[in-house]
Amino acid sequence: MKIIGLIGVISIGVFLMYSQFYSARAYAQPAQIDPSLRALLPEEREITDKTMRLFSQNLMLVTMGHERGEELFRLFVDHHIPLVIEQLGNGRTVTRVERSTNSTQFSFFAEPWDEEETFASYLPQHRELRIGTKLMSNCFFGFIAAHEMVHVDDFVSGRESPAPSGSDEFVAGEIRAHELEFELIERWTRGRFWTTIGRVERRLAKVGRATPFTEDMREVDALFPPSESDIERRMRNGIYVLAISFSRIERFGLPDAYHQKIRAYRETISAH
Fold first, then answer.
1. 131 and 61, same structural domain?
2. For residues 62 and 66, what is the distance between their CA atoms, to the nearest angstrom?
């Protein structure tokens, strides 16, 4: 127990030092939150603080030592601000984004309600990062956090403009985010992810099947800790299926691989 406790103290210490180090290398100083907006209620603050802490810790967990990943972690640490929440009489919530003079600042909002269909999303028109409060294993929380931070960086940097959902431009942004996510997963599994995905893909090709069997999904899933919730299990399955599709596209080396990936993404989303 003493050893476990010591490891926990060391981990927290490393996290704080890492956060402070990158905070000193900020892109720019964050703007102050508009004082005319009300403060978060205690219960809102507790949910938001916990979710932001998990987001930051798990993002750091999977990006430390990865150049692009560390840039995204630095962007989050230096430029996120809690989103003000206004309660309505029916118990639901609406949001408004704080006024900001910093072009790289974005809002962070923890979604506590039970009927959430997705764990994370970035709304570029509001510069708003929404993260669900469902349970999620640390590593997959980190992978998904990195995925969403690709979207944040694309939009706040001006590399991408808001596009209709499902358009080629929109899907291209999703593919960029997934490819970074796959890089981090490959590092996390120490090179075993793509080896396993490739083995499953070739096995499916031999029987003329595109959709993986349950045992195929379990083989990939065995590389990671158990899922913590149904939403995590569904998200994992979608990631595995997309990776299998990308592996098939890369193996054939088709000249239109980019458009093949766009089609594979759309097919995966429609099935999951």
1. yes
2. 8
